[in-house]
Amino acid sequence: METLKRSPYGSVMETTQHTSPSTPSPLELPAQDVLEAIGTRSFATLASTSANGWPHAAGVLYAMSGEHLYVSTIGTSRKARNIAENPRVAVTVPVQRIPFGPPASIIFQTSARVVRLDDPELHAAVATGDLKAVTGHGELELPGGVFIQIALPRKVVTYGLGM
Question: In whole angstroms, how far apart are CA 124 and each of 118, 145, 147?
Answer without folding.
Answer: 11, 17, 13
